[in-house]
Amino acid sequence: MNSGIDLQGTFIESLTDMGISPGLAKTMWIPLPMTLVIIGATVGVLVVVWLERKISAAAQQRIGPEFAGPLGVLQPVADGLKLVFKEDIVPTKSDPILFTLGPILVVIPVFLSYLIIPFGQNLVITDLNVGIFIWISLSSIAPIGLLMSGYASNNKYSLLGGLRAAAQAISYEIPLALAVLAVVMMSNSLSTIDIVEQQSGYGILSWNIWRQPVGLLIFWIAALAECERLPFDLPEAEEELVAGYQTEYTGMKFGLFYIGSYVNLVLSSLVFAILYLGGWDFPIPLDRLASWLGTSEDTAWLQVVTASLGIIMTILKTYFLIFIAILMRWTVPRVRIDQLLDLGWKFLLPVALVNLLLTAALKLTFPMAFGG
Amino acid sequence: MFALSGYEYFLGFLLVSSLVPILALTAAKLLRPRTGGPERRTTYESGMEPIGGAWIQFNIRYYMFALVFVIFDVETVFLYPWAVAFNQLGLLAFIEALIFIAILVIALVYAWRKGALEWS
Question: How many Å apart are CA A100 and CA A153, to the nearest integer?
């Protein structure tokens, strides 16, 4: 296999050539991909907000935002600026410290989860050997923030919304973790890089969609529930609970919840693309393409093309999933709380367990097809 | 410097991502208006005068789910090393995990029959 482009190595090498010690050069490198990823994630949110408005409008035969910039692309920026300039209201009866800490605790873990998202062979902040497990553990911190803000508001709607959010998050956490577990079993590794590598080789045919059709559905349902997207947006069901745990929030604190939920949606779609849709893999195997073109895959320009194509593929797959999530919002009605919990505990959990054991059994019987 | 290599990135990224809410809230603090009377700071309750607070003794119906969750979450954590090393463990490990999961499925069936998974 080709090793791809080693940006970190090149960067450190060029700095040491300029007379900077290797240790310092490495320290200077560390914040670069992180800042880039944070900016990318924020821009990704702006795009998703715009897409959500435009697609929702199309689904309801409206035009949607159109005045702010061409086709209204600047609308999310205007929304964000408006939130920055809003007055900050902390209810007198609330607990001010927990009230502020809640949204912060929701936002940090979702951004932090980008640590393990690979956009290419070497295009990942760090390839931890516990990779996907970091994402699972970080995703269980956010409900604490929701519970905290629901309680701190000292508002009945907020309290009920916060409790619902926590109940929903813990109910869907287990099916989600078990669906991931089946993929992990096939890759023999928790590292996101290894999970994608294991799906490469035959292009679209070697992606996990064909080997984990049940796990894929479980993951998608559970991920939508974790993101509190319709049809699982009970914690903020506006007809029942005003805005759930967000009821008392204004200005930038509300903005943090807003950013958090959209970053989480993008993140879940990215993880879905990595686990089941082959991450940065091109649908047609690239070494085949290279041999058709008559070049070796180690050629410099081809490596640059491959790397950019990898990033584009990851983002395309992600936005395709987001598109499906937005369409589902306008197609499926919201479930009731008892239906939600029944679906999680009485259906998804047993099915996820069976899926895991089935994967294990198939791996024993056909070790070649299921990762050896 | 770090006992676990690779985790200096985790620490660094934790600091970088903590900057997001800090910067956002600081920018808002500098830019937002400071007006607003006490009326605005009352608790919202559909435009009515709020009746009582929310910090009361209150039956949280979901606590049984939390208990079952703890059991199955620990189970999942136990299954992770099993799944990662499964290609080296073979049939015996599969049967062992089958027994382990079967015991927990019995627990799930028990909780189900006891009505712990009912919402009302």
Answer: 10
Is residue B3 situated within a structural domain?
no
Beta strands, E only, B5-118? none
Task: Write down how long chain A is.
Answer: 372
How many domains are there within chain B?
1
Q: B-chain residues within 8 Å CB-CB of A170? A: 65-66, 69, 73
Q: Answer whether residue B89 is part of any domain.
A: yes
Task: Find the CATH number of the domain harbouring B105.
Answer: 1.20.58.1610
Q: What is the pTM of this model?
A: 0.87
- What tens digit of pLDDT does each residue of A137-165 get? 888 888 888 888 888 888 888 888 888 88
CA distance A300 to chain B (A): 29
Q: What is the pLDDT of residues A231-276, one digit of tens each?
A: 877 767 666 677 777 887 888 888 888 888 899 999 999 999 988 8
- Residue A78 structure tokens: 């205007």
Size (chain B), residues: 120
Contacts with B118 from chain A: Cβ below 8 Å? 338
* Domain extent at residue B43: 8-114
Is this complex's ipTM strictly greater than 0.90? no
Q: Does residue B38 have a cis peptide bond before it, meaning omega lies within 30 degrees of 0?
A: no
